[in-house]
Amino acid sequence: MLYFTKIRIFLISLFTLIFVYLTLSNFIKIENDWLDKKINLGLDLQGGSYLLLEIDNQPVITQRLQNTLSSLRKYFKSKKIYYKNLRIQDDETIIFNIENDQIEQTKILFEDQNSDINPYYPKFKSHQFDLTILNNEFRLNFSKYGLIEIKKTSLDQALEIVRRRVDEVGTNEPNILRRGNDRIVVELPGLDDPKRVKKLLGKTANLTFRFVTQNSEETFGSEKLMFEDGSEEAMVSKRIILNGNNLIDAQPNMDTEVNETVVSFTLDRVGAKRFGKATTSGIGKRLAIVLDGKIISAPVIREAIVGGGGQISGGFTFQSASEFYGDTVWGRDIF
Hints:
Layout: H1 6-24, H2 33-36, H3 43-46, E1 48-54, H4 58-79, E2 83-89, E3 93-98, H5 103-111, E4 120-121, E5 126-127, E6 129-134, E7 137-142, H6 144-169, E8 175-179, E9 183-189, H7 194-201, E10 207-211, E11 222-226, E12 233-237, E13 242-243, E14 247-255, E15 260-267, H8 269-281, E16 287-291, E17 294-297, E18 309-316, H9 318-328
Antiparallel strand pairs: 1-9, 2-3, 3-7, 4-5, 6-7, 8-9, 10-13, 10-16, 11-12, 14-15, 15-18, 16-17
């Protein structure tokens, strides 16, 4: 006859109950935070998707040059500098000619450390643009450090866009890392559908505001663009009034009066000034909101918008408004 002490009987009973509890948990759903704790496995253990993204900075550089071209016209007018043949050559050089008696004055405006039109970077001891003068022809190219600043800004914005889009996937413990000056590594454990990930991360987000013109044919200063829903085409000016750089914030909201989703946006100081001037002189015109080469909406300007913010309506669902303008807050054609 076996004899067990009370302590041994207690321990055997305790272990038996624990064993039964753990066994039943495999067949019956039992709410228990301790049991629900899991170890997040990496790509090497549970599989997933690994992507290496490279940023295409050329569209950003081209857009910066176009914006600078517009700024130069206004700047020269304010300084009473007489110029001609102001243009962009090979998508990398701004060229213009200056009257002989104003060459030295113009040179100082670009080389001064307090220059308004050619910012100076004290930490690099360099201006944004390198200036070359041949006779009376001025050439502006982004300096080495000017390009570094552009690439750094693009990379920061791209990282934010990727993070926002990865959040849409809903994967656990994603790894999003910098690689050099123009690459991003994305690791998504447990997500083994690379086509879906590429489609999501490969979307561009290049937002511009431009006027719809009355021309019926494409010209040097206009182009024909299709509406996103394919309903119609419109001739749109190539002159960019605003782009994603000027957006501080954009959020989807519900307009209760007409019961539709709208996008409320806020502009930075420069954008607010440009938008106010454009809408003041453009009352009665249609303003095209162009995303990735397609017109999202083209509302008629009823009154000047000078407060630095407004609303865009365009038949959005709440999800599409979040996707489109959640990305275009950062507003770049990046990948």
